[in-house]
Amino acid sequence: MHTLSEENYLKAIYRLSQEEGVKITPTAIADSLGNNPASVVDMIRKLTDKQLIAYDKKSGVSLTTQGRKDAVLIVRRHRLWEVFLLEKLGYHWDEIHDIAEELEHISDTTLADRLEKFLGFPEYDPHGDPIPQANGKMAKPYSVSLADMQTGTTCQVAAVRDTSSAFLQYLLKLNIGIGTKISLEEKISYDNSLVISINGNDNTTVSQKFGENILVE
Amino acid sequence: MHTLSEENYLKAIYRLSQEEGVKITPTAIADSLGNNPASVVDMIRKLTDKQLIAYDKKSGVSLTTQGRKDAVLIVRRHRLWEVFLLEKLGYHWDEIHDIAEELEHISDTTLADRLEKFLGFPEYDPHGDPIPQANGKMAKPYSVSLADMQTGTTCQVAAVRDTSSAFLQYLLKLNIGIGTKISLEEKISYDNSLVISINGNDNTTVSQKFGENILVE
DNA sequence: AAATAAAATTAGACAAACCTAATTTTATTT
DNA sequence: AAATAAAATTAGGTTTGTCTAATTTTATTT
Ligand SMILES: [Mn+2]
Ligand SMILES: [Mn+2]
Ligand SMILES: [Mn+2]
Ligand SMILES: [Mn+2]
Hints:
Chain A is of the alpha+beta class and 217 residues long. Chain A contains 8 helices and 7 strands.
């Protein structure tokens, strides 16, 4: 169907399209993939020819109906494989992303559907991201971050925005995972650091960046 | 570690090296991969530089210790994934080879070991080929074919030599799978066709080629 | 041993996906 | 509005892995 690179571009463009009010420019795509903008311009041409994206200098890059469909399927495969790796093979949540990054490109037509059934039709992946269904629909992604909460309230971790190993390993160390209860005790007004209590234990202080990368419900 | 192409060449060379008394020439490799001999000569140079193979005009291509090790790991992954696809995802045995052909290249260090454990340390893949263990050792491959049997004897299907969909689907139609009991009723001396009884049912006639591609015990 | 056929190799080309460096276009300051 | 900065694009290259066509080497016939 598509090459590995085409698929990675489609996925990157899809991800950027999920961020509200962001114009998808060659530089944005280049940053997101770690490529040179000149290379991105080449691929924009190729994907435009294949009618998977449209490029308008004013509004930037957008996915066509077909392009979005293909991108969502790749995301679906990625997240299903992540569930498999964590639940069936016993990996930790900081180890699965890179492997799923390869597995997502296996292109057999019924594989995702069979895997989904085998896994019991999970709605969310191990990072709390919703898994697109075969029809393209998916649960609403979580959007309220720990940093958005009011002091004195308690919430549950629903998802992580940053899926880098560095962040996920830090969370493992702090004993924070999906479902963990966090109480926001205090916001330090100087730098917006957050004083939190994890599962009712002693207080810990975390940075604003940290708080923005944890999504809660 | 290696590129997709390098891995496919290593695997092809390994497979040829399993066939007794066959000199591994550029044309043999080209035939086995569906490539042009000129391309093979390029890759022989590359793999020789990487010290994965040795090429001697007299004796042909051979794997170095490292090359064999790498090839066996790819075969290990291929066969483990085939077991997964059949046993966990419900594919039939004629559908799994091509998917495993892609999955075998996923290169995470612990993936094969975890998969093996998850599958309960299977010794043979769904086609009856032995699965190399983590230490490189594996059960002896089956080698006696149905065509080698004496008239009047009964045996059990242990493996198939040909894993093409055409052959496997024919076997599905005849209700022959691993473990099926076959009695050899008669050998037609004219063309070596075989008259067999499958699981004690009415006689069926199959070709010599057919009989040579079924391994029994 | 010549002649012929087959296999191996070299030479040169091409597509994919990247790059750097130079240039052009667009946006932001002053 | 100029000047400056940033972004986008073009031009030209590189690597990988493939190909075809031509040539050389090796093997098989006669
Ligand atoms: Mn990917
Ligand atoms: Mn994820
Ligand atoms: Mn392969
Ligand atoms: Mn097999």
